[in-house]
Write a structure and sequence with these properties.
75 residues, mainly alpha, 80% helix
């Protein structure tokens, strides 16, 4: 690839990495509102909430690692 194309891809993935990181910070800030108890769902218990939290955390970590790897790996 040409160096101009690599530079463009590096900037794109760096921007995506920053966006994913800030999205994770926003999720942590609004943690209780997003993953707290819901009075409209009486069948929801703590294990289902924990499972949903774990899925969201793993998805965020995978996105963070992939965008970081592409941003740093294109050097």
């Amino acid at each position: 690839m040409q160096t101009d194309a690599l530079l463009t891809l590096r900037w794109i993935f760096t921007g995506l990495f920053i966006a994913v990181f800030l999205g994770g910070l926003w999720t942590l800030k609004n943690y209780q509102r997003l993953f707290g108890t819901d009075q409209e769902m009486p069948s929801e218990n703590s294990s289902s909430r924990s499972y949903n939290k774990m899925q969201a955390l793993l998805l965020w970590l995978h996105a963070l690692l992939l965008t970081g790897a592409f941003a740093l790996g294109l050097h």
